[in-house]
Amino acid sequence: MDSRDALRLFEAVRRGETSPEEAVSQLKWQAPYEETGGFAHVDLHRRLRCGAAEVVFGQGKTREQIEAVLRTLQRHGEGGLATRVPAEIGAYLGDLFPDGEYNATGRTFRLRASGPPPPTLGRVVVVTAGTSDLPVAEEARVAAENWGCDVSLIADVGVAGIHRLFGRLKDFQGADVLVCVAGMEAALPSVVGGLVDCPVIAVPTSIGYGAHFHGLASLLGMLNSCASNVVVVNIDAGFNGGHVAGLIARRMGQARQAAQANGAGTG
Hints:
This protein has 267 residues and is α/β, with parallel strands linked by helices. It has ten helices and eleven strands. It has helices spanning 3-14, 20-28, 46-50, 63-75, 87-96, 134-145, 163-166, 188-193, 216-223, 238-266; strands spanning 33-36, 40-43, 55-57, 80-83, 101-103, 108-111, 123-128, 150-154, 177-182, 200-204, 230-232. Strands 8-7-9-10-11 form a five-stranded parallel beta sheet. It has a four-stranded mixed beta sheet with strand order 3-4-6-5, with helices on both faces. It has a two-stranded antiparallel ribbon with strand order 1-2. Helix 4 links the parallel strand 3 (55-57) and strand 4 (80-83). Helix 6 runs parallel beside helix 10 (238-266).
């Protein structure tokens, strides 16, 4: 159950289509969590509280553990997203969940929620400095799409050939949020931030040579960006960047939808 489901239930009570007792019964069975396999407490109210279902961090988990958590989420109509899923576990999950979507580059496995999908709201553009940044960028793309946003990805437009970026600026128009993924010296977010009028979520990657210190140089470079619309997440944290971007973009889309509805109502 999410906030839309709860509102529909309350509206049904107000219209007399559902009794208060029936509504209480439905809410009663919406348990806040479910213990799964003795190794997890799956949060079933995450979507109601936070707008999106709990996401499974696959790194360090066995394939059976990931499967069990996804089955719990699916049984409650939540769908499910798992990140950092190795190829062999992705293949295992694909056999068990034929409707699942495995992204080999981003190492994500996604199950859609039951019922009709929510309307697409908000626009996110993910941009990478280099092709080597694609695994992190794909994780960000899937995370933003999990919010029901319109998401596009532009790869390999780093500052070493900055004319490539200028040739794609038209693709940034209308974006609510940009996710900028870069390794090495990570100069791209500062450049992008100075060219757009929306938030830029910068994601440093661990791509680089020895003095790059496994992404620390990128992280520090992004934190010291002179562009005032740039904020930074952790090294290789594509999910975090995409998730926050999707949250912001969807809120922006909802605000536009409400404004349009109010305008139509007063016309």
